[in-house]
Amino acid sequence: MKARTIVLINARIFTAVNTKVIENGVIVIKNNMITDVGSRGFVEIPRDAEVIDVKGSFVMPGLIDAHAHLLGLKSGDEVKEPLLMPYEVLVIRSIKDLEALINSGFTTFVDAASIIALRLKYAIEEGTIIGPRIVAAGYPLTQTFGHADIHYLPIKWVDPRTTEKLVIPYAGLICDGPDECRKAARYALREGADFIKVMASGGVASERDRPEYIQFTIEELKAIVEEAKAAKRFVHAHAYPAEAIKNCINAGVKVIAHASFIDEEGIQLAKERNVIIVPTITIYQKVLEIGSKYNYPEWAIKKTEEIFETHIYNIRKAYKANVKIATGTDLLSGPFKHGENALEIKLLVDKIGMSPAEALIAATKIASEVAGLRDKIGTLEKGKLADIIAIKGNPLEHVETLLDPKNIVLVMKEGEILKNILGKE
After folding, report:
1. CA–CA separation, 16 and 334 (whole Å)
2. β-strands 63-68, 408-413 pairing
3. What are the Cα distances from residue 273, in Å, to 39, 241, 246, 269?
């Protein structure tokens, strides 16, 4: 089959390699790869190419949500709805969420706990459904009384290895002690996990624990990390308190989600070990704005209110210390809906103090590291996969431009055009 060549012309290109913009830019795509990027006159346009004039649009790498979940919920009631709604309905709803993600410019989605995502990944890869590239953990690991141990259910109904009904798509593999942790990690890998998700502390959405509770010992965390490394994978940890964060980093964990109570020592460790923080500000903002309206659990709303200001303060400190930060929303579906994921970019600007360019790099280059795909996506360079979006407007001047899917006029994933409304917007 003859190779297909597409050339984008008249682009304002933000490569995400750095904060510069290439004016009057050209990108050459052959099949699924970028083969050249640069200004007009410095890039040769193949004679047989399909040329697309993006008409001065802002062109950048596809956006990446580095921590979220496909759950297929309609309401904010995470207790009743998964119990009452058939699992298959949750899956079908999640397919619509994937379409919304593509429509809003997200070409990669890191799912940090959901068996639905792990299964739909295959349907996307074979072309049966349309959606961003999924990088999924599947079942997370939790200790007994941990963040992914659903406290209000009998324990045998929680763990996917013992329940007769998959009650909640993000229910955890319950494990205590290094040996059980090894076995649980191996089970997650057996199910197809791209990385291991571990709940290293309590959280806001779990009923009986609190965010400041330390969960898993360093010996347990080391066992999990060893199993991930043996399978050429990595560990992505949910961790709030300073000691849990430091335990994770010292055990070899590469990604820390939330990190609300990180201290100076943890910040220094993160810098030394090249650990990435994914602060997930979006979910806290959304819970505070609309959680009570949509029956989100009271315990979760209360704990969110308690930690929010501290969370912002400490993430700002980590940013100022040059810790790597990636965009991740922790959006769940329902009222916390997919398609609004670019809000995290705006919040990194408004609340953490990033420049718009830094926030775009957090949503592309840095987020690609969280996905384990740094060598394949995240920047517009020769040899990278052609994950490219074109935007009407300039997010470097008005970052809120990204919040309206109508401004995303072109979406390309691996050279395939999944959205094109150039001239129709």
Report:
1. 31
2. unpaired
3. 37, 18, 11, 6
Burial class (CB in 10 A: 0-12, 13-18, 19+), 413: buried
* Cα separation, 198 vs 222, whole angstroms: 11
Rounded to whole angstroms, how far apart are CA atoms 235 and 233?
Answer: 7
- Which 8-state DSSP code applies to residue 153? S
Same-fold call for 5-62+378-420 versus 63-370: no
pTM: 0.97
Q: Residue 135 in contact with residue 111, Cβ under 8 Å? A: yes
pLDDT tens for residues 128-159? Answer: 999 999 999 999 999 999 999 999 899 988 99
CATH of domain 5-62+378-420: 2.30.40.10
Quick one: which H or E segment has residue 343?
A: helix 343-347
Distance (Å, whole) CA 338 – CA 331: 7
What CATH architecture is 63-370? Answer: Alpha-Beta Barrel (3.20)
Give the C-alpha separation, 163 to 157, whole Å. 4
Structure tokens at 255: 């990604």
Buried b (16+ CB within 10 A) or exposed e, 359-393: bbbbbbbbbbbbbbbeebbbbbeeebbbbbbbbbb
> Helices (DSSP H) in 35-191: which residue ranges?
80-84, 87-103, 115-125, 155-158, 178-190
Residue labelled with tokens 């991740």: 328
154 vs 183, which has greater pLDDT? 183
Rg (CA), the chain: 21
Phi and psi, residue 37, nearest 5°: -145, 135
Which residue's entry shows tokens 């360079």? 381
Q: Quote the CA–CA distance of 329 and 296 in Å, as a whole number.
A: 17
CA angle 120, 121, 124 (to 5 degrees): 90
**Taking residues 217-230, what's their average pLDDT?**
98
pLDDT digits (tens, 9 = 90+) for 246-267: 999 999 999 999 999 999 999 9
Q: What gap in Å lies between CA 86 and CA 357, rounded to an integer?
A: 43
Six token digits for residue 418: 């999944």
Q: DSSP of 275-314, one letter per residue?
A: -EEE--HHHHHHHHHHTTTTT--HHHHHHHHHHHHHHHHH
**Phi (first) and psi of residue 219, to 5 degrees:** -65, -40
Sequence-ordered alpha helix ranges (H) in 129-274: 155-158, 178-190, 218-230, 242-251, 264-273
Q: What does the domain layout of the chain look like in residue ranges? A: 5-62+378-420, 63-370
